[in-house]
Fold this protein.
Amino acid sequence: ASSLKIVLKEDNQALDEVVVVGYGVQRKSDLTGSVASVNSDVLESRPQANLIQSLQGAVPGLNISVTGSNAEGSSTTTRIRGNNSITADNKPLVILDGIPFDGPWSEINPNDVESIEVLKDASSAAIYGSRAAHGVILVTTKKGKEGKARIIYNGSVGMSQATELPE
């Protein structure tokens, strides 16, 4: 009865070759679509009253059109991969901190968002089922962090003056 001592060497480069999905691990080459990610730095550089408006042009394959103006800001239409159904709703499934969200985008404060992932591939259907047929938008909000308190101030000042007043 002899014993063997085997030491495995880690390979950090191999981590770039896989993507963790909801039901396991896949090689990047096996993903059928794409996953686009937007972090808070991108969102903070595009100040908008509505979160979805700050995503316009930031995510490839995410089509956002402003369809009107209402009390909640602007009415927007969000599409991933275009219209896929003639009779059913074509909007993507929005998951806010792990919970399906069906409200208007104006209810999500852009300053509270940490990151947004847009799942455009078929593997998202394995996680969320048929609701993911039109894509999935994962919104993760900021959480408190351990350590020193951090205060962020964002302000603006404007002046207006009437021009060409009547005599």
